[in-house]
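Hi F.,

I've been meaning to write this up properly since the lab meeting, where we talked about keeping a consistent format for the predictions we share between groups. The idea is simple: the sequence comes first, exactly as it goes in, then the structure tokens exactly as they come out, then a line or two of notes. No screenshots and no reformatting. I'm using this chain as the first example so we have something concrete to point to.
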Amino acid sequence: MEQRGLTVYSVRADPVYLRWQMEREAAVGEARRRFRAAREDVHRVREDRERLVVSLGGEAGRRVREWAGRYGVTPGRLLDELVEQAQVDEAGQLVVVAFTPSLEEGRA
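Output, unedited:
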């Protein structure tokens, strides 16, 4: 074709394609960077949390499930907040003041 004076289209010489390719590579690089940052955040949060498996007796388990259902939270979230609210008084006794479980995201 070039011998006849016709030019052959080359994608590598197309300025529109080259600009699109550069923009795409930049967008992919940015998406990968954001993904890595989000994954690192998840790992950081996981490292900050204790994993504890709790087995409650029949009545205690029923109460926790009932209370969690009443406030629209999971039993794990209810126990998490219960522990956060617990304090030891001057006499060394464990005390939990009245509280309402939070529906806030990101909790147990």
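Notes:
The chain has two domains: 2-48, 58-96.
The beta strands are 86-88, 94-96.

If this format works for you, I'll send the rest the same way.

G.
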